[in-house]
Amino acid sequence: MKDVFDELAAVRRTMGKGSVPAGEAYTIELRRRYDAEIDDVWDAITSPERLRRWLQPVTGDLRPGGHFALDAGAYGEILTCEPPRLLKVSWLCGPDGDAFAGMSEVEVRLTPGPADDTEFELIHAAFVEEPLFPTYGPGAGGVGWDLSLIGLSQFLAGGEITDHEEFEQSPQGREFGRRSAVAWGQAHLAAGGEPDHVAAAVEATTKFYVPDPT
């Protein structure tokens, strides 16, 4: 199994443009390959029992038009479900999430590979006027998704699943957070981000995910 820094390097990160119901959006996009068949990966991202083991416990009516909720607070509506290739949901967070309805969507696309493997693509589109981007840039969501995909990789490989909170507080997890923030800064620059804004966003993201020890 790859170590966590190899997992970080396995992901191709880009920042692009898209749309959500609220209007024009920016996107953070993560692409990587998993050594697992497409049906296995699909089941891992849609089965409540399996989601609980690598991401978070999930509840709700898990079919198109239904609503879901994750234990950590994210929730939304299942917009599209086309097994085993496409899943799209709205993505809201916090008690005031309804105020931002239509501002954030997550789409996962799976493509079978040539060797019983799977190409995985996650696209998180957020309304350009959402409040986090000016401060944190794409790392606001990107670092969190990097952390989640470690769990999915370990789960598909049959290994021990990292406890996200414990990992983030460990020396290895703190270094992972720093490297992930920098990687998203590089994606931001490649998309045409203004260097001073990118540098400030990377610093803010790093402080959020890797706070100074108290």
Write the layout of secondary structure elements.
Blueprint: H1 4-10, E1 12-20, E2 23-34, H2 38-46, H3 48-54, E3 58-60, E4 67-70, E5 75-82, E6 86-90, E7 104-112, E8 118-127, H4 133-136, H5 139-156, H6 164-169, H7 171-190, H8 195-209
Antiparallel strand pairs: 1-2, 2-8, 3-4, 4-5, 5-6, 6-7, 7-8
Helix pairs in contact: 5-7, 7-8
The structural domain count equals: 1
Q: Count the beta strands.
A: 8
Percent of residues in beta strands? 25-35%
**Largest sheet composition:** 8 strands, antiparallel
What is the count of DSSP helices, taking H or I runs of 4+ residues? 8
Name given to the CATH architecture: 2-Layer Sandwich
Q: What brief labels describe this structure?
A:
214 residues, alpha+beta, Alpha-D-Glucose-1,6-Bisphosphate, Chain A, domain 4, 40% helix, 28% strand, globular, START-like_dom_sf, Activator of Hsp90 ATPase homologue 1/2-like C-terminal domain-containing protein, ASHA1/2-like_C
Structural commentary:
The chain has 214 residues and is α+β, with helices and mostly antiparallel strands. It has a single domain (4-209), classed as START domain (Alpha-D-Glucose-1,6-Bisphosphate, Chain A, domain 4, 2-Layer Sandwich), CATH 3.30.530.20. Helices cover 40% and strands 28% of the residues. The protein has 8 helices and 8 strands, in the order αββααββββββααααα. The chain has helices at 4-10, 38-46, 48-54, 133-136, 139-156, 164-169, 171-190, 195-209; strands spanning 12-20, 23-34, 58-60, 67-70, 75-82, 86-90, 104-112, 118-127. A hairpin with a 2-residue loop joins β1 and β2. α5 (139-156) packs across α7 (171-190) and α7 (171-190) packs antiparallel against α8 (195-209). The protein is globular and about 45 Å long.
